[in-house]
Write a structure and sequence with these properties.
Shape of chain C: elongated
GO molecular function, one term (chain A): transmembrane transporter activity
CATH topology of the largest domain in chain A: D-Maltodextrin-Binding Protein, domain 2
CATH topology of chain C: MetI-like fold
Largest sheet of chain C: none
Number of strands of chain A: 10
Helix content of chain C: 55-70%
CATH class of chain C: Mainly Alpha
CATH superfamily of the largest domain in chain A: Periplasmic binding protein-like II
Distance between the termini of chain C: 68 Å
Shape of chain A: globular
Strand content of chain A: 15-25%
Largest sheet of chain A: 5 strands, mixed
Strand order of the largest sheet of chain A: 7-6-8-5-9
Largest interface: B-C, 43 and 31 residues
CATH architecture of chain C: Orthogonal Bundle
Number of domains of chain C: 1
Radius of gyration of chain C: 24 Å
Distance between the termini of chain A: 56 Å
Order of helices and strands of chain C: HHHHHHHHHH
Organism (chain A): Nocardioides agariphilus
Radius of gyration of chain A: 22 Å
Helix content of chain A: 40-55%
Oligomer: heterotrimer
Chains: A alpha/beta (317), B alpha/beta (319), C mainly alpha (248)
InterPro entries (chain A): ABC_Gly_betaine_transp_sub-bd
CATH class of the largest domain in chain A: Alpha Beta
Keywords (chain A): Signal
Protein name (chain A): ABC transporter substrate-binding protein
Structural class of chain C: mainly alpha
CATH superfamily of chain C: MetI-like
Number of strands of chain C: 0
Number of helices of chain A: 13
Order of helices and strands of chain A: HEHEHEHHEEHHEHEHEEEHHHH
Number of helices of chain C: 10
Chain lengths: 317, 319, 248
């Protein structure tokens, strides 16, 4: 009798913990159960990837659309090459994407892996190159936000203040050789070692292979093992750790502005959405992204809650 | 030679393995400890070489109290043979036999010489068997090596724990007889443990019967045990056939044989020697299907025995 | 893709230089051997002693079960970001000490379990006989228990060696040395063939080490000669041998 009871209790416990699994239900091309009811405008499928920032943005898009009276389904997948074909054929209606990212993707898809880059630090030029590529695939591109998530380099706040540094040029101007903490592919890349040495004139004595934005690279910079590390512009943890980004004043990073990519047919059928999303793009800043990422990654808040708070703070709902 | 004074073993949880007992073994004597499972006979044996430490009493070997000396040193001077033999499988036979002399620090040459002698003594040719490994030998052969190994350092005392238990009955008899001969030749003091009353009666100069629970029930010669069991336990243990067994341990009394007059050669079958036991006399009678058996001393007939005569002699031996 | 990986491996240029396959392989070997040696020094004496005393068996056996569940990389990360730090530790590279500690912890379970089981499984009768004939505890251990337990102990060493070699690959994740660097480089450059090449190197290394250890085990087994000795079987009685003379 007590054995059966114990077994039942154990099973219950197991089910409960499984249910508390949180947002780990994404898989390639499968539903995320983000369904809502009460729609009179029809249904929308919001796409995206399963890293924190994308989850938050997808949640923001979903709430805006619900607010407009749509019933929303969210599909989060692993990589761009999974959701982009869906965006073309209408399986997915709208995706928060990154300007240079989607441009490079469509460019190499059309012109081959070794095709010369059409993206650059210039957002407008990149957008111009993107539009025809996207149209060919049945994708409409809405105006990009000023908020960007691109690679950036950071140093300790102490070091920046001591030498009055705000930009990478300032640092390069010091003329000392530096040790860099960056992923193993940094060497030669225009947005990494290549750009730093050729465009900025840095002398890099050693690249210590530490992952992009990882706890390890931040630790290495803090301890002084390396002088500079690589992370993203929306990394919200920096100020709390006494680290600070240096501005890419000479523009070696391609423009990765947050850009809504919409299925052309869907947009044609719902033209009012353009204004709605323009309002969102105008309100969104890089700092907002950083703060929201921090809330999810460090404070363990849910993307939906973070999205709702952002929207109400900005008065967009 | 060996004296146990008030020796007993009680375990921490209160189990009494051996009640305090007194036992003595004379030099050159073969004493058998016999009893059913769990009677404490093995425990008693192992207290002599302190593989198990006694909780009460003292043990004297050749007059010195060995209860408190270094047990390792003590054991080197005592031969130890166990049922499962325990030869070292990764060493050759000769090397196995050389173990204790080498422990004493003897040179390899001396130890080798000694080991070869002992192998001859137990009936194994060192040239043939010395270079083999234990697994290549039969059970009986391995136990011979076990005995040789135990005797290698010429210890005065030999302890044996069911030494012939792991071999088949035919081999066992062979080994028992050869060991008895060996012991008589070498004059070793031996304490042997067995659960087999027949083995005890056959091998022992004196036999100690242990009852379940570690109690020494009786200690005496085989004849005494069989003729006068001390209590119900011993009586049960020696069994209802103790009369028959007594025949095996009672020698023929040459002074009380029946006369030869009136006996024809047709009445007789094979003859037996006057030094034989009553058992051999009866066995001869039954084997030859004759009512009498002739008793000879050398080539000379000294008398005969009939079944009635055997019975009479057995009765007389009680006194 | 396998073809590209093999091409990478067969290109002589990739083997030479400070970032070449040769250097990385030697670094990994150094990490492996140091960690294994340290683990053996740490774990074997304790395990062998406990086995000889026939104690702590439950602990010795279950340390392997627990050890298997520990994620080595997590331990390495915690150590390198925490108390041990990520300083360059001589030839063991960045976070070398943290890496060695993690690998030692990882190597201990198979060493401990096998050493303990090996000693306790030695035939008790043989051990009793050796004690009874007057061997000191030390002699019982060194002359009887240890030689007879050697095959099982060596198997533990072999398991630990191969496991540590394969796992030392993670040193690259803390920017340490070793063949893992080839794999991380491949990942970063999104070059699958390089990743596969790195993995192949680790796998081949593991096989080679395993093979060498098997030979070593065979050589160290004191029963090797005993087993191969066939001799005349115990029950062979030649027809011309008179039964009474046969020694049984």
């Amino acid at each position: 009798m007590s054995r059966a009871l114990g077994l039942a209790a154990a099973s219950l416990l197991l089910l409960a913990t499984a249910a508390c699994g949180g947002d780990s239900l994404e898989s390639s091309g499968s539903d995320n159960g983000g369904d809502t009811g009460n729609a009179d405008k029809g249904s929308v499928v919001v796409g995206g990837q399963d890293f924190t920032e994308s989850q938050v943005l997808a949640a923001i898009y979903a709430k805006i659309l619900e607010n407009e009276g749509y019933s929303v389904e969210t599909k989060l997948v692993t990589t761009r090459d999974v959701y982009l074909p869906e965006l073309s054929n209408g399986g997915v209606d709208i995706v928060p994407d990154y300007l240079a990212g989607i441009t490079d993707y469509l460019n190499t898809e059309k012109n081959g892996a070794d095709a010369p880059l059409v993206s650059s630090n210039d957002a407008d030029a990149t957008l111009e190159a993107l539009k025809p590529l996207a149209e060919e695939k049945g994708i409409s591109i809405l105006p990009p936000s000023d908020a960007t998530d691109q690679n950036a380099f950071f140093v300790t706040k102490e070091f920046a203040e001591a030498n009055s540094l705000t930009t990478l040029s300032d640092f390069a101007g010091l003329g000392k050789p530096i040790k860099l903490g960056a992923p193993p592919d940094c060497e030669g890349r225009a947005d990494c070692e290549g750009g730093l040495t050729e465009t900025y004139g840095f002398t890099i004595s050693e690249i210590v292979p530490l992952d992009f934005g990882s706890a390890q690279v931040k630790d290495a910079v803090t301890k002084g093992e390396v002088d500079m590390g690589e992370t993203g512009t929306t990394d919200g943890s920096l100020s709390g750790m006494g680290l600070v980004l240096l501005e890419d004043d000479k523009g070696i990073q391609p423009a990765q502005n947050l850009t809504p990519a919409v299925n052309a047919d869907f947009l044609a059928a719902n033209p009012d959405l353009e204004d709605v999303f323009n309002a969102l793009s105008a309100a969104l800043t890089t700092d907002d992204l950083a703060a929201m990422n921090l809330a999810v990654d460090v404070e363990r808040q849910k993307p939906e809650d973070v999205a709702a708070k952002f929207l109400s703070d900005k008065g967009l709902l | 030679m060996i004296r146990l004074a008030g020796v007993g073993k009680t375990y921490e949880d209160g189990t009494v393995a051996v009640h305090e007992l007194d036992l003595d073994v004379a030099a050159g004597e073969l004493v058998v400890l016999v009893g059913p499972s769990g009677c404490g006979k093995s425990t008693t044996l192992k207290m002599i070489n302190r593989l198990i430490e006694p909780t009460t009493g003292h043990i004297f070997i050749d007059g010195s109290d060995v209860t408190t000396v270094d047990p390792v040193h003590l054991r080197r001077g005592i031969g130890y043979v166990i049922q499962q033999i325990g030869l070292f499988p990764h060493q050759k036979i000769l090397r196995n036999v050389m173990t204790v002399p080498l422990l004493y620090g003897e040179s390899t040459a001396t130890a080798k010489q000694r080991a070869s002698e002992l192998m001859d003594l137990v009936g194994l040719d060192p040239a043939t068997y010395g270079e083999r490994y234990p697994h290549e030998l039969s059970g009986g052969q391995q136990q011979r090596v076990g005995v040789a190994r135990a005797l290698a350092a010429d210890p005065p005392v030999l302890l044996m724990d069911e030494p012939f238990g792991a071999v088949d009955p035919v081999v066992r008899i062979r080994l028992q007889e050869e060991f008895l001969r060996l012991q008589r030749d070498l004059g070793k003091t031996v304490v042997l443990v067995t659960h087999d009353i027949d083995e005890a009666v056959k091998m022992g100069d004196r036999v100690a019967v242990f009852a379940t629970g570690g109690r020494l029930a009786q200690f005496g010669t085989p004849a005494e045990l069989l003729a006068h069991p001390a209590d119900e336990f011993v009586e049960d243990f020696v069994g209802a056939t103790r009369g028959l067994r007594r025949l095996t341990v009672t020698p023929i009394d040459r002074d009380h044989l029946e006369p030869l007059e009136g006996v024809t050669t047709g009445d007789l079958g094979s003859a037996i020697d006057v030094d034989a036991t009553l058992e051999e006399a009866l066995a001869a009678m039954l084997r030859d299907d004759k009512p009498v058996v002739g008793v000879k001393d050398g080539s000379q007939f000294v008398g005969v025995l009939t079944p009635a005569g055997i019975h009479r002699q057995l009765r007389e031996s009680l006194r | 893709m396998l073809g590209d990986a093999l091409a990478y491996l067969f290109d002589a240029d990739n083997w030479s230089g400070p970032a070449g396959i040769g250097t990385f392989a030697i670094q990994q070997l150094l990490l492996t051997i140091t960690a294994l040696a340290a683990a053996m020094l740490l774990g074997l004496p304790l395990a062998l002693w406990a086995g000889h005393r026939h104690r702590y068996g439950f602990l010795a056996i279950n340390v392997s079960n627990v050890g298997r569940a520990v994620p080595v990389f997590a331990v390495l990360l915690v150590l390198s970001l925490g108390p041990v730090g990520s300083e360059t530790f001589g030839p063991y590279g960045r976070a070398g000490l943290a890496t060695l500690i993690s690998l030692v912890l990882f190597a201990l379970p198979p060493l401990i379990t096998n050493a303990h089981v090996g000693i306790t499984e030695v035939d008790r009768d043989i051990v009793e006989a050796s004690r009874g004939m007057g061997m000191s505890e030390g002699k019982v251990f060194s002359s009887v228990e240890l030689p007879l337990a050697m095959p099982v102990i060596m198997t533990g060493v072999r398991l630990a060696l191969v496991q540590v070699w394969a796992t030392a690959t993670i040193a690259a994740l803390v920017a340490g040395p070793g063949l893992g660097r080839i794999i991380t480089r491949g990942f970063a450059n999104q070059s699958t063939s390089v990743v596969v090449a790195g993995a192949l190197l680790v796998a081949i290394g593991a096989l080679v080490l395993e093979g060498l250890m098997v030979l070593a085990e065979r050589y160290a087994d004191p029963m090797r000669r005993a087993r191969s000795a066939r001799g005349n079987g115990p029950t062979t009685v030649r027809p011309d041998e008179l039964l009474p003379d046969a020694v049984v």
